[in-house]
Design goal:
By secondary structure, this protein is mainly β. It contains one helix and eight strands.
């Protein structure tokens, strides 16, 4: 297990653009704010959901797309830097109109209906990512 210690920097609170891509909007917020590392949560609803389940045996993501309105039950993640750009890692849980909950790893293609994000910058550490050869995942490199 690798660890680093930092301190909380700015807290940025933003509305997400209606019709925007959730993942792209989060990455743009980090880039526009100059945040190289941080943690975030988001609340709201989406009109379309794109997420994935990571299959540990095959080291591949199994993509899932669902159409319709869904409530964001949980949207939490972090930012690091991969190849010089903000890289988001986010898990998303959604509920349908019947209260059925599903989710996974956020992918591009999740369309925001309304949303708010709370981003806390992490200072005094460099949260860089590199691909772990054992899992194929982009992990923090401490």
């Amino acid at each position: 297990m690798g660890t680093v210690s930092g301190r909380a920097g700015r807290v940025i609170i933003a509305n997400l653009p209606r019709g925007g891509d959730l993942m792209g909007s989060l990455e743009k917020l980090a880039a526009d704010s100059g945040v190289a590392g941080g943690v975030f949560t988001a609340i709201g609803t989406v009109s379309k959901a794109a997420f994935a389940y990571y299959d540990q045996a095959s080291h591949k993501y199994m993509n899932i797309v669902k159409e319709g309105g869904f409530e964001i039950i949980s949207c939490t993640g972090n930012f690091g830097v991969l190849k010089g750009r903000p890289r988001i890692h986010c898990h998303l849980a959604l509920a349908d109109r019947n209260g059925h909950v599903f989710g996974g790893h956020l992918l591009p293609g999740t369309e925001v209906f309304v949303g708010e994000v709370h981003l806390t910058e992490v200072k005094d550490v460099k949260l860089k990512r590199k691909v772990d050869p054992e899992t194929g995942l982009a992990m923090f490199d401490f």
